[in-house]
Design a protein that fits this description.
single chain; about 650 residues; mainly alpha; Fumarate Reductase Cytochrome B subunit; two-stranded antiparallel sheet; 36 helices; disordered N terminus
Length: about 650
């Protein structure tokens, strides 16, 4: 046949017959124009005759600009269109050659080449052929706000992920929760979407050196938006290691995460102040294998966790210093680098950001100091060794003493005489002070060890309160104030009430008889003597406990205040004082806790002679039978005091009655 320009056009009629248009005659598509009975071009308007819906959508799509040749541009020659009418990338390549070439080399294109029927193609991402819109169109599947939904078609499908052995779970869901996803959802078109990090058509697996998310390429990928940060990172110790080929050197995703990148202020963020030290920096700097491989110090994370800062962090403080506070965020340099924030010349300024005036009066000592082990200042080391000797010896003595006493009393099985008679042991002033100690001490123990060991199962329930404020620290300090107040009340009571002071202090003062009493008790319990020991108002066990309690309260108060008011401590004392206070506070807490459990609880609860409990702390009275037998002289003194005390009470009651009547 001849064209409208008189040129011969060869038509393979066999292909036409096999095509979807084989049932149509020539004039169904070709318009007869005077002088040109056989034009070769088929206008879009001719396709509209049968494909009205497709042509309608096409006009509104980005391909509508192709005009009358739009149909043939994608579908090919009208004589050769098969019933499948598939649009292969080769057709798209006629206009989008670069994109199609990138797609062929991508992981998606490779999957298609391997025969994966579920591999994505152009239509999978850009939408139906006749409805493809510009990426700037709001309803386009590849519009920035819709990219995540488009990728989710496959990457949020559990069956698809499982069938293709894709190990990354919920990437799109995590992205939507991230700072990038939330910004996009709020209408910020500048925030990163999937294609910004993974690429558009040339998406490659992370292990491919050309991939944007390859370990070595991540800084430049993130740097497309965060250029200043990327530049600073590349100059840092981590960036230098990465450029030197160190595979374990952290890059952006190692610290910030991959899809779930959250703002630092969010509690779940890997760079949140409460998590950056232990969860993020600790991931590498607490790894024994990495420490051995790169000759890294192994004590950095444990010493931080053991320090005042680490304890305060476990307390729930959001303002306490973490790794980034001292070493920097992206600008982390070696300590001998003049740019480093932990360089000796810069330490005063760095620490001064939180502790005004630190370093001006005293030199700043070693920062990473392990309180329980590892190298430390001589004073801290001396304190540590002292308690390592004192605690086992003290607790060992208590266990041995009470065990022998307990077994001896069970073996003797002395019958208890219950006359029902009681004598006064504690006046109301003593009971008030004791009540303050009873209220505060268990709270101090629980919250203190919850601060020290927050990962323990028993400490976890209290962490639920940390969502709103530093609950453990607040409770610990409140209990400390109550304990101090109870102790001060006791001291004031003794200072003001002369009668109680004379009787109490004189009886509580240690004497040589206490030593002989201890030896006699041991001899009696071991069966070396038949003479049963008797005591004065206070026996040696009660005296030891009382003076140990006062000493421990003073020590814990002083060390606690040094830690509580850390700015004052660091401004006026060298840093080893703070380390020493931390060590003393910890070891003294251990000693006090176990002393109460082993010594005091035995005397007032577990001792067979007082079981099930000495109730003096409730009503101030104790069974007369127990004191008549074990403290005869003191019992006689109490009996002598009872009439006078009763008379005194009667006079007070009469005076009150008279006052009411008047």
């Amino acid at each position: 046949m001849k064209s409208d320009r008189g040129k011969s056009v060869s038509i393979d009629r066999s292909k036409h017959s096999a095509s979807v248009h084989g049932v149509l005659g020539c004039t169904d598509c070709h318009t007869t124009i005077k002088g040109y009975p056989h034009p070769t071009k088929v206008a879009k308007v001719q396709c509209l005759t049968c494909h009205e819906d497709e042509a309608k959508h096409l006009s509104a799509s980005i391909h509508g600009m192709l005009g009358e040749q739009a149909c043939q541009s994608c579908h090919g020659n009208a004589h050769e269109i098969t019933s499948a009418a598939a649009i292969a990338p080769s057709k798209c390549a006629q206009c989008h050659a670069d994109e199609v070439e990138d797609f062929k080399q991508s992981i998606h294109g490779q999957a298609a080449a391997w025969g994966d029927a579920r591999a994505p193609n152009c239509v999978s991402c850009h939408g139906e052929l006749h409805q493809i819109q510009s990426s700037s169109a709001v309803s386009s599947p590849v519009a920035r706000r819709n990219v995540a939904d488009t990728c989710a078609t496959c990457h949020s499908n559990p069956q698809f992920l499982a069938s293709h052995n894709i190990p990354f779970a919920h990437p799109v869901e995590l992205y939507r929760q991230s700072v990038h996803g939330r910004l996009i959802a709020s209408g910020n078109e500048k925030a990163a979407v999937c294609s910004d990090c993974h690429g558009s058509h040339g998406i490659l697996p992370a292990q491919d050196a050309r991939s944007r998310i390859n370990h070595w390429n991540l800084p430049s990928t993130c740097g497309r938006c965060h250029s200043d940060i990327a530049k600073t990172y590349l100059e840092s110790v981590h960036g230098e290691a990465m450029k030197a080929g160190v595979r374990d050197a952290p890059v952006c995703s190692d610290c910030h995460g991959e899809h779930l990148i959250l703002e630092p202020k969010q509690a779940a963020s890997l760079v949140n102040a409460s998590r950056v030290s232990l969860a993020t920096c600790g991931r590498c700097h607490n790894d024994e294998r990495l420490a051995l491989r790169y000759n890294l110090p192994t004590d950095r994370i444990p010493s931080y966790a053991d320090s005042y800062h680490g304890l305060a962090l476990r307390e729930g403080s959001q303002s306490v210093a973490n790794c980034a506070s001292c070493h920097g965020v992206h600008n982390i340099f070696r300590s001998n680098d003049a740019r480093s924030t932990v360089n000796t010349a810069n330490l005063a300024k760095t620490c001064g950001n939180c502790h005004t005036g630190v370093g001006e009066r005293f030199a700043i000592g070693p920062v990473h100091v392990q309180i329980a082990s590892g190298p430390a200042h001589p004073v801290v080391k001396w304190i540590r060794w002292t308690y390592w000797v004192l605690i086992p010896m003290t607790l060992g003595f208590m266990i041995l003493h009470n065990l022998i006493d307990f077994v001896s009393k069970l073996v003797r099985r002395t019958p208890r005489h219950e006359s029902g008679e009681y004598v006064t042991r504690m006046t109301h002033n003593f009971r008030i002070a004791h009540a303050g100690v009873m209220l505060s001490f268990p709270t101090l123990v629980f919250t203190g060890f919850a601060l020290k060991y927050p990962e323990s199962m028993w400490a976890r329930p209290i962490l639920l309160w940390e969502r709103h404020f530093a609950f453990r620290g607040a409770m610990h300090r409140a209990a400390a104030v109550i304990l101090i107040a109870a102790t001060v009340y006791h001291v004031i009571h003794l200072a003001v009430v002369r009668k109680d002071r004379d009787r109490f202090l004189k009886a509580m003062f240690p004497s040589i008889k206490d030593v002989t009493d201890l030896l006699q008790v041991c001899a009696y319990n071991l069966g070396l003597t038949k003479t049963e020991p008797t005591f004065a108002k206070f026996n040696y066990a009660e005296k030891v406990e009382y003076w140990a309690f006062l000493w421990g309260t003073v020590v814990m108060t002083l060390s606690g205040f040094l830690l509580w008011f850390n700015n004052f401590t660091l401004r006026h004392f060298p840093k080893w004082v703070s380390d020493a206070a931390t060590a003393v506070h910890y070891y003294e807490a251990l000693l006090a806790t176990f002393s109460i459990l082993l010594w005091h609880f035995y005397m007032v609860i577990l001792d067979p002679l007082v079981y099930p409990m000495d109730t003096a702390w409730l009503n101030g009275k104790v069974p007369a039978d127990h004191y008549r037998h074990s403290r005869p002289a003191y019992f006689r003194a109490l009996q002598a005091e009872e009439p006078a005390r009763a008379s005194e009470a009667a006079k007070e009651k009469a005076a009150e009655t008279t006052a009411l009547v008047e």
